[in-house]
Amino acid sequence: MADHAHLDGPALTRNQQTVLTALKGADKPLTAYDVLGLPAIRKAGMKAPLTIYRALDKLMDRGLVHRIESLNAFVHCDHGPHDHATGFLICTDCGRTLEVHLESCETHLAGRAREQGFAVDNVRVEMTGRCPECAARAAAS
Amino acid sequence: MADHAHLDGPALTRNQQTVLTALKGADKPLTAYDVLGLPAIRKAGMKAPLTIYRALDKLMDRGLVHRIESLNAFVHCDHGPHDHATGFLICTDCGRTLEVHLESCETHLAGRAREQGFAVDNVRVEMTGRCPECAARAAAS
DNA sequence: CCACAAACGTTATTTTATAACATTTTTGGA
DNA sequence: TCCAAAAATGTTATAAAATAACGTTTGTGG
Q1: Residue A98's CB: how many other CB atoms inside 10 A?
Q2: Which residues of B touch A139 (CB under 8 A)?
Q3: What is the pLDDT of residues A67-90, one digit of tens each?
């Protein structure tokens, strides 16, 4: 689970920095094509899907970006470096996500795997539901 | 989390039964297009992707099939009806998966969500690693 | 400065999933 | 039984997500 790739390695390239900034500026996960469509991205001269995917791959290697599997989307990692598994709370109303860390739960999950003789090297958790804002809005109506 | 849709509802249609049987016969998760390519499927007269997706959707509604998000693939649920969250152990060597139930962990995960004011209605866990067989084979070489 | 590796650009293609619309089948009353 | 509504299906086309292949540029260490 540990990599800390984001602590070392070369500086981000211009494309990588541009994509990371785009994700930081978004209030929810973006697909690669969402990113591609952003004005800031076009201004930077990025115009092919592959350009975006390449930048995203590097950013994920460094732990600066996470992929939300169930959305085919990418989100900036708003926590610092971390060794433990990450979970995502995905609001089915507004599409925003919240990252939660699973220090204690990871041990449990990996333990369930070990019971099966399975050597886990990566744990991903995605939970769907309603965020506080959307729950409140739904209750009000 | 509770649905038990598989306990009631109408009988499976021919298409649904055919797809379910195909997944039961596979030793690993299959993509919709993998399913589409199976001889048994073609023999049953199913030849369009949408036909497969429609059957898969219904089977998932009933909890008879699960989708592995990180593989874009579908697997037969080899456990009986269950209310609690399911996790998957995915072998990165052979591609086979193992389903594990997360009775105790789900409470913990949902609790972490509730801390954030988030009302969870679905939890998905996917863990990658090496299955016992592949780990043994790797150790032997 | 040069050689190598990494990143990038470009075009085409593959893989995964859904839209739109007509037809058939099933099912639950009248 | 028969009919109407709902569910499922067939068919064609298209959208959405991701990668392949290949050449060029950039950056970095020796």
Answers
A1: 18
A2: none
A3: 999 999 999 998 877 778 899 999
